Every structure is written in structure tokens, then in C-alpha cells.
Here is the input.
Amino acid sequence: MTATTPDIETIDDLRNKIIEFPQGLPGFPSSHAFIMMQTPEERPFAWMQSVAEPHVKFAVVEAYAWDRDYTLEVPDETLEEMGSLDPLDYAVYFILQIGKRDSGMTLQAKPNAPVMVNVRTRQARQVVTGPPSSTKSAEALCLQL
Amino acid sequence: MLVLSRKVGESIKLSDDIEITVLALDHTRVRLGIRAPRHIDVRRSMPEVNVGEVNREAAVLPDPAANPDILSKAASVKNKED
Here is the structure.
């Protein structure tokens, strides 16, 4: 499947809801459930915080809001396992790495390992994609605050 | 599992169209050359390791000095950009 969806409202369905990674989140085998925390001012960004290990949290951003040209290619088998073949059932997030540069902060997106969430079942999986399909350079994925 | 030894320069063939060659060795690292058809996605053979590292780097550690409103700031910058 190659899905591009203009729908960036999906996070509203997940705001302050718990999503489940049945296979765990790579690097954090004890954390299967995460809560998506977001104030209205933070859209399209959110915090994804582990329920079992609350000190583990990630800044995330709605992929299509971050990069309007983003396309994601995921095997149909993956979608079947996640419970829907309909691209509109999925929200896609980039995990962001927060860093410091000069006197400011940077947010660097990790576009090769997006988190997909079936917004109906709230089942989530981090998928590994090839090199960025985006036309934007790596620099453009870095936001200086 | 099949376990076998190869010397530098030797290779392993999987089926007819995948060949893995040992290019170099040092104490803890082996460099491999992999020749495979385009549809074989070699990257995905070890996502756990790489993605786990990426995730651990990105995880926000408890830091009382951390900027709690960083995402709302980011949103206002990003939304202005668009």
C-alpha cells in the first residue's frame, strides 16, 4: 500500500487515549501501552508516554502535518495484521528527537521509523521504511526553536 | 539454524540470487557485502536493533529543567511556517 492521506485530524481521535503496541516498542520491551497526551495548543505535536514506565516518553508529530509530501509504503500483510486495509483508519506519527543547538532547541524527526496507529482499534506498530520518500532534506525535518 | 564459518573474501549463497560475502573483520565487527534482487529488503532484516537505538536516543529522560511547553512552541512555529 502506498497511502497519502490529507487527514491530519486523526490525532483528535487519539488525544489522551491509550494505544497498544502488541509487539512492544523497539528498545522498550516492557512498554506496550502508551498514552497520547496533547493540549489543543500542541497540535500537531503530542507526547507519547509509556503507561508502565511513565519516565519513558517521546515527543511525536503527525507525519502529514510535519511533511505534507510524505508518503508511506507499508506491505498489505502489515495492514492486515493491524486490522484494516483502509489507509484512512491509520494515524501516522514521527518520533522526534529533542536536542539543543546554540541557545535553542531542535526537534529532529525520525522519518524512517514512523509509528502507525489503527485509530479504530488503537493498535499501534512502529514500522521500518526505506530511505525517506519525502522530497524534503534531512535539514528540513529539523525545527529550530 | 545453520552455523558455518567463512574466511574474509568467502561468501554464502542463499537460494540462487542472494550472496553474502565477508568483506572484513576486526575484533568485534564483521563487514558484509550483500548482493540480492531489488525486491529483497535487506534493511528490514534487523529493524529491532536499529529502531531500538533510535528510540532510546529519542526518549525524553526525566529532566526537571526540560521545557514543558516545547511542543506548543513547536506547534506555533510549525503552524506559522505552513
